[in-house]
Amino acid sequence: MVILRCESEGDRRSRFVALNDQIEALRKEVRARQEIEAGLADTIASRDAFVAIAAHELRNPLNVFQLTLQLLYRLSDNSGATPPTDIRALLRKLKVQLDRITSLVERLLDVGRIRAGMLQLEREPLNLGDLVKEVSNRFLDLHPDLALSLQVQAEVSGEWDRLRLDQTISNIVANALKYGLRKPIEITVGSSGDAAFVSVKDHGIGLKPDDLERIFDRFERAVPPSNVEGLGLGLWIAKRIVEAHRGTIEATGRPGQGATFTVRLPIA
Amino acid sequence: MATTHTVLVVEDDDESRQLLTEILELEGFSVAAAANGAEAWDYLRQSDKPCMIVLDIFMPIMDGRKFRSLQLQDQKLAKIPTIVVSALDPSAINDPAALKVFRKPVDINVLLEVVKHNC
User: Fold this and answer.
1) Measured between beta carbons, which residues in chain B are less than 8 angstroms from residue A98?
2) Beta strand spans in A87-222 (E)
3) For B105, which of A62, A71, A113 is closest by C-beta distance?
4) Which of B23, B87, B88 is facing A74, going by the closest CB pair?
5) Which among B23, B106, B109 has CB closest to A63?
6) pLDDT at site A1
7) Cβ of B88 and A71 within 8 Å?
8) What is the mean pLDDT of each run of 10 residues along chain A (268 residues)?
9) What is the pLDDT of residue A226?
10) How many residue pairs bridge chain A and chain B with CB atoms within 8 Å of each other?
11) Residues of B (13-52) whose Cβ lies below 8 Å from A
């Protein structure tokens, strides 16, 4: 036996009105969310634009700073008398700090550039071993006590962007220095199949499984920001540069057992 | 128009212009300094040709781009090697005729190498 539920005209009307009200409420909610999303996108775009303008505006005072420092170097060289060693040491300290500020400004600009899809590569024939040697020598100049070793397994050349790869490798080595607990850092350059590789291995705090992907995100670190200086942009920028070369960057490691970062670049 | 060992520095920022002038003079170059493109253009029309121009882009009165467009229209002046030094990203400068494009803050040693090579 089938019992048919008889619905009066009034019931149907009420149900129809209730449904209409629900649909209208949902539409309102969708509109409200769309407005919030648009607002957030505007806020992010404004923030990126602000950062880009601020970084750009910092270049002129930085330029004056650099030129002043260079002039001081030259005047101390030309003065005839040997300048006191501590003045030279102070000048060197100023130079190191200035280079750090310049590098931070560069990173802020890179964020805007990468987000806007404007990261352009200037490829040129490049010997990867030579480039990595330059980077490692620079680190050794700045940190004479650093136990940094370089092994070039094979001469490998390709068409890559010299400055961007220098930046990538520098960011990775700086990361190893930051988290490496002053233990040895080993850099290896070689090739495997159609790819060149650079690996940077440290013996520091290591990485948790969750960190392996997350550390390549913007403003991310393997430890709380208060523990380590910097903007948390180095590896994010490194990954974008490597990807622009159609290469890959990978992190491996375990907590307390150091970390290895490997960049692979297509040779052809 | 004879070519001299003078470097023409075109930069609106007083500090940067003076410092660059002093460094170039310490390295033995003679320097003519201009605070904008118009001053630099006047200098080029009235004086012997400099061996090199070091040019900023964002400047009041006449900016570096306008100056370059005038310079490149003049057959003799177009040949003066020109280094562009700007706070802008080099990819935004778009001056294929420039000898070099450097970004501020400039590495003075690299800039001096280029100047020494051409002057």
Assistant:
1) 105
2) 123-127, 148-152, 157-161, 185-192, 195-201
3) A62
4) B23
5) B106
6) 52
7) no
8) 65 85 90 85 71 72 86 76 69 77 76 74 91 93 90 94 90 90 94 95 91 74 49 83 95 94 92
9) 42
10) 57
11) 13, 15-16, 19-20, 22-23, 26-27
Q: Do the domain assignments include residue B50?
A: yes
| CA distances to A85, A230, B18 from A102, in Å | 26, 13, 21
* Interface contact B13-A118, CB threshold 8 A: no
Condensed to tens digits (0 to 9), the pLDDT of residues B19-64 reads: 999 999 999 999 999 999 999 999 999 999 999 999 999 888 889 9
Q: Which of A65, A70, A94, A138 would you mutate first to test chain B, the one with the most B CBs within 10 A? A: A70
Closest Cα of chain B to A51: distance in Å?
14
Assess if residue B1 is contained within a domain: no
Chain B partners within 8 Å of A167 (Cβ)? none
Of residues A70, A113, A120, nearest to B108 (C-beta): A70
The total of structural domains in chain B comes to 1
Residue pointed to by tokens 């660059």: B20
Cross-chain CB nearest to A64 (options B15, B91, B103): B15
Long-range pairs of B61-68 with CB within 8 A, sequence gap ≥ 24:
B61/B36, B61/B37, B62/B36, B62/B37, B62/B38, B63/B36, B63/B37, B64/B10, B64/B37, B65/B95, B66/B37, B67/B10, B67/B37, B67/B38, B67/B40, B67/B41, B68/B95, B68/B97, B68/B98
pLDDT per position as a tens digit, B63-117: 999 999 999 999 999 999 999 998 877 777 888 899 999 988 888 999 999 999 9
Q: What is the ipTM of this complex?
A: 0.80
Query: What pLDDT score was predicted for residue B82?
Result: 97
Q: Residue B70 sits in a domain of what CATH number?
A: 3.40.50.2300
Verify cis geometry, omega within 30 degrees of 0, for the bond prior to A83: no
Mean of pLDDT values over B5-21 = 92
| CB-based contact B104 A60, cutoff 8 Å | yes
Q: Measured between alpha carbons, how far is A258 from A207 in angstroms, rounded to an integer?
A: 7
Domain that holds residue B92: 6-118
